[in-house]
Write the structure tokens for this entry.
Amino acid sequence: MILDANTENIARCAAALLAGELVVMPTETVYGLAGLARNPSAVRRIYHVKSRPSENPLILHVSSIESAKQASSTWTDTADRLTAAFWPGPLTVVLPSDSELGTVAIRMPAHPVALRLLEQVGEPLVAPSANLFTRLSPTRAEDVSSEIAGQVFTILDGGPCEIGIESTIVDCRRSDTVAILRSGSISRADLEQFVPVIDSASDIRVPGQYKRHYAPKIPVRLVDTPTPEAYGLTILSATVKQIPMPRDPRAYAARLYAALHQLEEMNPPEIEIQTPPRTPEWAAVWDRLSRMVG
Ligand code: AMP
Ligand code: MG
């Protein structure tokens, strides 16, 4: 069931979450399958509903920097600078924690509905993307698959996601430098305005970075564009449908999953994606595209 994200429905969802149920909530990146972080059975159900491997940890969603500080065992200078600059927003910081994994990933979402819900619940939620493991993330309430929809209290409709791809994940365990663990709309250049970025954190376990991920059900083929301006999405089928894509990398990212969902519903034998330029501002889009064919 999809419900409008009005005051009354947000309050009902907050109560359901506190009672241990799962809710699909809008965020500015993608729709999240939310559950109470401190409730082990809610957390187990998230893994079960998504068919997500248990070694793939969940991102903690908070409504303030204060509660992020409480969730980590050490708050670093780099986390301080980056959260001051980018929270609320599509940035996940990885910090030391007392958990078995030794780290925790935390984000404060910017979507007003997610923030309202978090404030009303009054404690952190875990909220991976509301899709089956490896599939396309939903960026519109109606793109949440029936498998997920059938197992949650409700889907809160907060409109199309503004960012449209998953958050940038940054290793902030060190106080002098950071490393990007997953690219997103906050780019390396954006981060470098506040902290030095090094190429990789050699000693961190980066769980859940699967080669094939974020993929439609239908095979995807990446094809070079004849001219750099020609990128679009095409399905190869008897009834060829071409979806023109925006030239701007942020607008392209915001549109990507919804466009692929739209093509998926037509059930073509293959989806062909004309690739965008290989420049740094397209890094996050390239990351997702290459995992669709991985
Ligand atoms: P999502 O699928 O968007 O929920 O993002 C989950 C991803 O966040 C995982 O696949 C990991 O790459 C990353 N992640 C979550 N928790 C941690 C952690 N404690 N340490 C390092 N990476 C993490
Ligand atoms: Mg996901």
Summary: The two ends are 33 Å apart (CA to CA).
